[in-house]
Amino acid sequence: MNYVLKITKYSLILLSVFTLITIFGCFYLLWKFSPELPSYDKIINYKPSLSSRVYSSDGMLLKSFYLEERIFIPIDRIPERIKNAFISAEDKKFYSHFGIDITAIIRAFITNISSYSSNKRVVGASTITQQVVKNLLLSNELSYERKIKEILLSIRIERILSKDEILELYLNDIYLG
Hints:
Blueprint: H1 2-33, H2 41-44, E1 52-55, E2 61-65, H3 80-90, H4 102-114, H5 128-136, H6 144-160, H7 163-173
Helix pairs in contact: 5-6, 5-7
């Protein structure tokens, strides 16, 4: 019986140390990267680069001028099947997470570590919110620093915008060919 108590005691001490290290690590990341985060005004005041169109007096389209031909569609005009298809393909837990999917991050981390030596393609764990942040505020560089910034901004964005507003930004910004 004494042996079981010792194992339980050491397990609790180990768990406490791990928890403290995790908490201090999170605070360190917040302290280090918060001053470097870009402003999220671009997301709140999103203005996609739409095309300019010139019409004749009888309503015929004469010419369109654009870098990317985009038409902004409000979320309430996007069919439910389209919304559900993208949520199913990109982020099944979209309506239940707080900007990041911790289980997906852990799964991707373990998968990428185990396949590091075999030169397999890196597995991602980005939520729709993280993809919006990356596309509108950050670059496409592959680095842990960018990923940490993406996570911090995603958590903040989820507190400011509704899920439908985030999905609207995502569906109007992604490239569809």
